[in-house]
Structures are given as structure tokens and as C-alpha cells.
Amino acid sequence: xxxxxxxxxxxxxxxxxxxxxxxxxxxxxxxxxxxxxxxxxxxxxxxxxxxxxxxxxxxxxxxxxxxxxxxxxxxxxxxxxxxxxxxxxxxxxxxxxxxxxxxxxxxxxxxxxxxxxxxxxxxxxxxxxxxxxxxxxxxxxxxxxxxxxxxxxxxxxxxxxxxxxxxxxxxxxxxxxxxxxxxxxxxxxxxxxxxxxxxxxxxxxxxxxxxxxxxxxxxxxxxxxxxxxxxxxxxxxxxxxxxxxxxxxxxx
Length: 252
Ligand code: SAH
Known about the structure:
Largest sheet: 5 strands, parallel
Number of strands: 10
Order of helices and strands: EHEEHEHEHEHEHEEHE
Oligomer: single chain
Helix content: 10-25%
Strand content: 15-25%
Shape: globular
Mean pLDDT: 96
Structural class: alpha/beta
Distance between the termini: 59 Å
Bound molecules: S-adenosyl-L-homocysteine
């Protein structure tokens, strides 16, 4: 059996209890070495075989999984954050299906949640934005034409941009082609939840310059939108005059 597990954004105590238990029981762990905190490997049994997938191809990862399965062993495939975002899990799952190797998936705290926590921010503020766009800038991995950053930026919604810190000038330019202005608040969160976490608060107009000034070149998220500003309306849910299924609203 293969267990895909989300490791969380970095801090070892941000993995789920289920994920930690699977690591403790694993005969083999294949972890995404570029981003998963190696401290999590401390949960492994002493005899557990450990592989760093940063140095492996898909074929090599699958070979290890097949060998373990043939020996009746349990493999944990440990991905950073939640495996469902930029995790390259589908290709692994399809290959396991083809070989009739059973697997399951345990979610993790995605770095976009880790970044919000680092910022003490709420992405979905009433009257500001009720939408979070998770995307990336086109790099060596292409992005479908209809999802180009400038066109997504036309919504002016909250945006969380993965895998793009090395292209920060292009990101800034694309955001300004959309609904954001030079003054729209933005932030860069480097290594959310790691001891070396860094937060850079800026505006869309100063995004590239401030990122460079702080020497951030990888493992960072760019977050953009007026949710980082000061204006919003309070929630209906907790408004004294609002009636819900659980609470009768007071007369105004
Ligand atoms: N599945 C992961 C994303 C993997 S893609 C998740 O759910 O978070 C790798 C990218 O995620 C990095 O380039 C960076 O943009 C972002 N990332 C991962 N961990 C991060 C962290 N702790 N802080 C900030 N960004 C992070």
C-alpha cells in the first residue's frame, strides 16, 4: 500500500495526526526533499528506507513503490503542504492504478494556509473579496492561455501565487495589467512556519523591488489583494441583528 501524505508547510508539528501515524508505521518514505522539513523523518522507524525524490525521476519513484509493494511493505510518499496543489500526484496515482497497487491520500496544511497564518490574515473578507485564486506564473511549466496571470488579475480577487518568486518582475507587470493598482497591498511570505520564515509586506508597485531587497529567491508565496488592507465590513454571521439557524437576531 502507498500512502500519499501532506507534510504541511514546514513546521514538523503542522502535519496531521494521521500523517504522523503513517510516517511512524512506514517501511519506506519517499519525501520531496526540496521542501519537506527533514525533521519529519525523525518519526520514521529505524529500519525505514528513506528516499529523497528531489534526486529521482517519476520512473525511479515508481520503481521503489513497486519493489516495496512486491515485498508487502508500506510506502509513504511525503509531499509538501497538501499534495493536491502542484504535487505531481496524479501521474503517480495513474501508474499505481495501472499496476493495481492500492493507495490513499492524507491531506496536509497547504503553504497558502501557512502564509495566511503567518500574516494573521483572512483571505475572504466581506465586501473585499470572497474568492481566492491560486495560481502560478508561467515558467518552464506552461500555463493554459485562458489562465494567464494578467487575465486572472482582472478579477481583483485575493490571489495566492505559487512557484513564481523567481519571476517577480513579470508577476508585478501582469498584476498591474489586471485590476490591481500600484497601491494594492501585497506580501511575500518566505518559508511560512519554518524558523527562518520571513514576511515582506509591500504593495503591488513595490513587489519586485522589496522581494529583491530582502534576498528572497525561492520557497515563497506572493499574496495580493485588498484583504491585506484596512477596509472591510464585519460578518453577518456574528452581527447581533442577524438571525441564523442557531441564534435569534436582536431588533435594531
Ligand atoms: N503542495 C504544496 C505546494 C508545492 S509547490 C502546498 O500545498 O503548499 C512548491 C511551492 O509552494 C514553492 O515554490 C512555494 O511557492 C510554495 N511553498 C511551499 N512551502 C512553502 C512555505 N513554507 N512558505 C512559502 N511558500 C511555500
